[in-house]
Amino acid sequence: MTMPRTELIVALDTPTLREAASLLKELDGLPLIYKIGSSLFTLEGPKAVEAVHKRGGRVFLDLKFHDIPNTVRNAVRSAAELGVYSVSLHLSGGEEMLRAAAGEKKRPLLWGITVLTSFDRRSFSRTGFRHGIERTISDLAAIGAGNGADGIVCSPKEAALVKERYGRKLRVITPGIRPAGPGDGGKEDQKRVMTPAQAAAAGADFIVVGRPVLQAADPAETVTRILKEIR
Ligand code: C5P
How far is CA 8 from the centre of its chain? Predict the structure, then answer.
């Protein structure tokens, strides 16, 4: 039996497009998806997306939409105009919001955020969610599965649970990745972390890596090592 392939998404969390462009140049030719999030997009907008597309890459637009259904539907329509591969939205925005987004005919893949990987049990319990992290992820994943999401974003620690329950219907995307050994970049604000190999073994279809690549002395070497690890 062949193992399903895990793909690598590199987070282009650079301060400006200049640094993003130089990273894209360094990583040119490697089989990657690029994640453009709120920091780069707020400053540089669609130019950042174009920079990836010009090099033939795919973009995961990680703007984590969370708003009333009509606004999110329009945001997804705008993302479709940009030609991105996928966009993220918070599943806690609810079923109606998700259905509005999923109802767009020509749209990117919709990846639903469950519980951010920067939460631990204690900080999560202070947000007002009544149940723990695992139960909340499971409830939110059910909203995703039942209302048109194409993927679920969760920590690698919950990937196996989501994969087991919804793996046939939904792709699993896991940030919170820290390569083992020296140069792991530290956990910083990420709390629920695993190595790339562990996340792949847990069933992640995509892993998202930011700082361990961005802060590496040789980003292309780091990416190549991670790619080897997940295949
Ligand atoms: O630098 P690091 O590898 O921690 O970056 C992880 C990236 O994944 C960041 O861009 C962050 O915004 C994003 N992300 C996350 N947790 C989620 C969803 C996205 O860390 N649940």
Answer: 10
